[in-house]
Amino acid sequence: MALHKGLHPKNKHKQGYDFEALIQKNRRLNAFLFQNKFKVRSIDFSDPKAVKELNRSLLRHHYGIHFWDFPDENLCPPIPGRVDYIHHLSDLLSPLNLQDVKVLDIGTGATCIYPLLGVKEYNWTMVASDIDRDSLLSAQRIIDKNNLNDVIELRYQNSKQQILKGILQTDDMFSVTMCNPPFYKSAAEAKGANARKSRNLGNNAVRNFAGNNNELWYEGGEKAFLHNYLYESSLFPKQSIWFTSLVSKKENVKSLETSAKKLGVKTFKIIPMHQGNKVTRIVAWQF
Which residues have C-beta within 8 Å of that of residue 187, sequence separation ≥ 6? Predict the structure, then answer.
């Protein structure tokens, strides 16, 4: 059982995967297990079907999510990393002692992963937006099959230029807004990066980091998305106590902090996240 270094203390996956327990919940996982060169049971993480089955098993075993399916072209989110964001948001909110927490997830995708984890780990009420109708149909199916319509609401964003505009309604009041922004500047850049990742994994065929255009890229890349999100948050300063986002590129944090001060942000926080060798961060701001 490989340990997952650096995960949040409350993360159920920090001790690694108990494959025996996972197989009990999902027999299909067994077909993808093998003994690696360290004599440890594992899966091939470059095989998208194996990765999907592992994450489906984790959701079933640890979170009681019994149905989780989505088209193969959509990104398959790694549950340990995704739930880490949820735990860090809980830490951010804990000094407020809120009775009811309501969270907005921007760009929830076909998997609806953050709403599922927020509901199951902390009983939060979730609203989730996306720009892709097919992704919302997939997410709604997951919500329906798990009987979560009372606690998860989906909203369609019909403008590629807008993030909060068109989603936030006048009577909305959120405890926190969260986002995992697109990383690349163009489809070509995303495709090139995926090809490199394939080679690094030693797999030139399929990969576990599929993803449609809306998930992978945004005109101007992560930096443009973050600055647009920050600007739009200044138009709705009282409708969310905290605005937050994952930031992959460290160099994007500085310019965001500078712009935040100009827009009247009162508090700007950087929350580091470590997942094995990967270092990322959450930025959080409030007016």
Answer: 213, 216, 217
**Mean pLDDT (the chain, rounded):** 87
What's the average model confidence in pLDDT over 107-124? 97
CATH of domain 72-286: 3.40.50.150
The residues, any chain, with a CB within 8 Å of residue 5's CB and separated by 6 or more, are 274, 275, 276
Residue 216: the pLDDT is: 44
Instruction: Kindly state the tokens that stand for 195.
Output: 């090809």
Residue 1 pLDDT class (50, 70, 90 cuts): very low
